[in-house]
Amino acid sequence: MSQPVISLTDVSSYLPGEPISADYYAQFAESDDLRDNLMFRAPRFRHHVGPDESAVDMIERAAQGLIERHGREVIENTDVLITHTQLPDVPFYGAGGGVAHRLGMHPDWVLDLHNGGCAAFILGLNVARKLLASGAGSTALIAVAQNSAGQIFEQPAVRGKSQASVPGDGAAVGLVTLSDQSPIIDVECRTYGQYAGDMSYAADPPRKWWQPGPGAGYIGFTESKIAKVLARGNRQVPEVALAVCHRAGLSASDIGLLVTNQPNRVFLRNWREALELPESRHFDTFDQCGNLFGAGVPINLDRAITEQRVQPGDVVVMAAFAHAGDFAGAAAVRWGGQLR
């Protein structure tokens, strides 16, 4: 019995507020042991979530493009809702329930994913296609919100650090359907549990993230940890991208467009070189948006479609790694064009 065809039919995205330039962070820059590290070369611009803007607000705004193109009833009748929020509005639960209510949905499945990190959209694609293929419904919505730049990295005690000028905020929503519009060729997801503790929260003086105390929390980077993350990321993203291609009988040269997460310019360059792709076939928005964490892949795909960087029939490969390398994923889609 043949498997049903599942498609990534469309994506839509949202960037909050006006662009914030690199000059803004330059005025706060402090002496920092990691200041000259290639990991923290600032983008020209990034966006920050508003002070009263929730993850649910961001996802609702990101979904408007899908509503305009496909109709509100398609969204309201979605069977599966999958969400990922970089910084949950409430520590105890994700945005799934709030998103379902805000968009008028009554899905049979509401799943909040957290372990996917910067590869969360790809993990969501994998979950969605398996659920739809198993008979769980005909439509899924994958919603990703990155909202930590304007909330964590904008704190006065953090924004002087080298890591603060790189992240940006944004949200994106993907529509997955039981159709042959833009078929998902394959998805590869890999968990590297041995690296799960290498991305850490730090505060000065030290405390657990939920404990009160002086000093703001930030990501606990060291030169040693950065070296490990660079090595893992450089290896993992091309590996999962090639695994998807090879299983489908494709080579890297068959990739019409590569879309990845975008921690920094170094990774973007190294991934292109590893896959032997020209810059014209690897789309990013790093200098406009910074490191968008889990929202990077779908936001970049939406921008690439809007700018006509991908044509019907092209193979689009999405690839990303998460945190300090504890998860990586890639998905290949044969793009069928955006329905209007």
Automatic annotation (TrEMBL):
The record's annotation in Gene3D superfamilies points to: 3.40.47.10
Q: Could you tell me the keywords of this UniProt record?
A: Acyltransferase, Transferase
Q: What is this protein called?
A: 3-oxoacyl-ACP synthase
Domain named Beta-ketoacyl-[acyl-carrier-protein] synthase III C-terminal is located at: 245-335
State one molecular function term (GO). Answer: 3-oxoacyl-[acyl-carrier-protein] synthase activity
Record's superkingdom? Answer: Bacteria
- The Beta-ketoacyl-[acyl-carrier-protein] synthase III N-terminal domain extends over 115-193
Organism the protein comes from: Mycolicibacter longobardus
Q: Which SUPFAM superfamilies match?
A: Thiolase-like (SSF53901)
GO terms (BP aspect): fatty acid biosynthetic process; secondary metabolite biosynthetic process
Q: Does the keyword Acyltransferase apply?
A: yes
